[in-house]
Amino acid sequence: MTYTAHWHSESGLPAPRRVIVADDRTKAAVAYRLACEGTALLWRGDYQGARQLLRALGSRLDRLAPKPGATPAETFHRHRQARGHRARVLGMLLVVLEDDHSLALRRAPDVRAACTEAYGPPRRRTVVSLRELLGVIGAHEWRRKGVPVPAVGGSIHPHYGVFSPVRGEYVDLVAAAPLPAAVHGAPADATAFDLGTGTGVLAAVLARRGLGRTVATDSSPRALACARDNVERLGIGDRVEVTDSGDLYPAGRAALVVCNPPWLPARPTSAVEQGVYDPDSAMLRAFLDGLAGHLQPGGEGWLILSDLAEHLGLRTRDALDEAFAAAGLRVVDRLDAKPRHPRASDASDPLHTARAAEVTSLWRLAPAT
Question: Where in this chain does the record put each Methyltransferase small domain (predicted)?
């Protein structure tokens, strides 16, 4: 019997070359061996049984935690390799989405709305990993409930594949930083740029602080749709314009340019990781190199950046200072905040030492001359 369906992977993984059918009779030890060997398991049993099997596979992988490296950078790279191996193995447990995005499994939840939000309207029968599907379901719940953000006077509703503002310290920094001279006295007449807006949370903060016009840019269609959704929910569409960035900056100049680039110079392996990893610091450098030419007199650029990369040995403070100077910028001031997320105090995290020392900063930058 031949079974055909379209393959989909948000991480861009190729379709597995070998697939066997698995169900509630499949033992975890057998499934683990097959998955490690590159054989995918197409689940046709009970949905809750599939979730239990996925947890069992995860437990086995947890026993293979890598040893710390000789340097923080080596520890980081080993950790990422282990996470990559974990994702590949867990990604071998597959389920079929029918041509209406439903799951034809016993005790399966209704995932049609979640899948339509993530993947778009249903078109054909599709095979995805259960692990990815659980991420889609979780994202749907985040989007439905929203993330309370006091600095915007409401909640932000993240979409699938868009980084959620669960780390509130960087939002609070933007809410508290002194506005630049170009804004003083007439914020309603000022224009700001929010580069790489994501959910639109920082653009919303600027609107709440009274800036009359904020141009929020992004290159991700999902982020653009998400930011527009949040702008509409918060009722600030008359003050925030969401637009495709093209080459990062919109046309013109602004009194304030805000940028919260991904904080770690490494390559992302999934859509949501694009909010964490910035290959070769490309977005950071593009922001710095274009800033002086996009500021009005008396304007500032606000760079929101964690120093986690420095504690991991992926970037030095000297390199950051040199990038400022090379872009013709000076530091007006720096505001710091300690992270408020569970990993900062999780001693079992392989990167705990670096995370415990991490500081998030808002760098107020202006042209050097």
Answer: 186-306
Structural contact between residues 251 and 191, judged by C-beta atoms closer than 8 angstroms: no
Element (H, E) at 305: strand 295-306
Q: Across the strands, what pairs with 96? A: 127
The CA-atom distances, in angstroms, between 346 and each of 165, 177, 341, 351, 352 are: 20, 29, 9, 9, 6
Please say whether the beta carbons of 317 and 197 come within 8 A. Answer: no
CA atoms of 207 and 329, how far apart (whole Å)? 26
Q: Estimate the share of the chain in helix, then strand, then coil, as percent rounded to the nearest 5.
A: 40, 20, 40
* Per-residue pLDDT tens digits of the chain, which is 369 residues long: 577 889 999 988 899 999 999 999 999 999 999 999 999 999 999 999 999 999 999 999 998 888 888 898 999 989 888 888 999 999 999 999 999 999 999 999 999 999 999 999 999 999 999 999 999 999 999 999 999 999 999 999 999 999 899 888 999 999 999 999 999 878 889 999 999 999 999 999 999 999 999 999 999 999 999 999 999 999 999 999 999 978 899 999 999 999 999 888 887 776 667 778 888 898 999 999 999 999 999 999 999 999 999 999 989 999 999 999 999 999 999 999 998 766 666 777 778 788 888 999 999 999 998
Instruction: Round to whole Å and give the CA distance between 29 and 345.
Output: 33
- Cβ atoms of 243 and 180 within 8 Å: the answer is no
Domain 146-367, CATH class in plain words: alpha beta
CB under 8 Å to 89, separation ≥6 — which residues? 32, 35, 36, 57, 61
Cβ count near 282 (within 10 Å): 13
139/149 Cα distance (integer angstroms)? 17
Kindly tell me the sign of the dihedral angle through the C-alpha atoms of 211, 215, 218, 223.
positive
Task: Of 124, 69, 77, 78, give the one whose Cα is nearest residue 101.
Answer: 124
Cα–Cα distances in angstroms (integers) from residue 190 to residues 185, 260, 287, 366, in the given order: 10, 20, 20, 17
List where CATH 3.40.50.150 sits in the chain.
146-367
Looking up tokens 């300690």 gives 338
